[in-house]
Amino acid sequence: MRINLSETDHLEISLISRGAANYIYDCNLLVSFTSRDKTYSQEVWVDGCEFKSFLTDLENLNKNLKGEAALHSDSPGEWLIKLLSVDSVGHFALQFEIGKEIWIGQETFWSKVMEAYPLDAEMLGEICADFLDSFSEIKNA
Questions:
Q1: Burial of 1: CB neighbours in 10 Å, binned 0-12, 13-18, 19+
Q2: For residue range 79-119, what is the model confidence (pLDDT) as tens digits?
Q3: Phi and psi at residue 86, to the nearest 5°
Q4: How far is CA 16 from CA 65, 80, 103, in A?
Q5: At residue 52, does pLDDT exceed 70?
Q6: What are phi and psi of 13, to 5 degrees?
Q7: Which tens digits make up the pLDDT trace of 12-37?
Q8: Which of 16, 72, 93, 137 is packed most tightly, with the most Cβ within 10 A?
Q9: Which of 117, 86, 95 is nearest to 7 (CA)?
C-alpha cells in the first residue's frame, strides 16, 4: 500500500511474508519512505497479533475520530507508525520512524528517518481503508 503524504513524500508498506501459512505469526514487511531528497527502505518484522490489533485500533480511530493506533517492529527502533487524534475538532497526525543499527568498527550507530504529517478526517479514512484492504489476510486471521 502507498500513503501519499504530500506532493513529493510518500510511504509504502508491503507484506513480504508471514511466519506460517494460515497462522497469525510474525509478519515481514518492507517499509519505504520517499521524499524529494531521499528514499529510505527497511525490511522489518512485526508481531502478527500486534498487527491485527493495530488494524482494529485503526477501525476504531476512524469510527470514533479519537484515540490512536500504533504498530512497531519486533526489533526496537527499526519501525514505528502511529496515527492519532490531536484535538477534538478533527485534526489527526501520522508519525513514523524507519531505522537501522549500523556497525562501524566496534561501535554502533543509528541511521533513522522520523517524520510527522498532519491529516484531516477524510485522509484518515482513506489511510484506514487502504490498510484494511491491503492487509485483510492479517485482519481476518
A1: middle
A2: 999 999 998 888 999 999 999 999 999 999 999 999 999 99
A3: -110, -10
A4: 31, 17, 25
A5: yes
A6: -135, 125
A7: 999 999 876 656 678 999 999 999 99
A8: 72
A9: 117
For residue 84, the surrounding DSSP H or E stretch is strand 79-85
Interacting residues of 39 by C-beta distance below 8 A, sequence separation 6+: 32, 33
pTM for the full model? 0.90
| All cell numbers assigned to 86 | 490531536
Contact between 53 and 141 under an 8 Å Cβ cutoff? The reply is: no
- The span from the CA of 24 to the CA of 121, in Å, is 30
Contact 68, 83 (CB under 8 A): yes
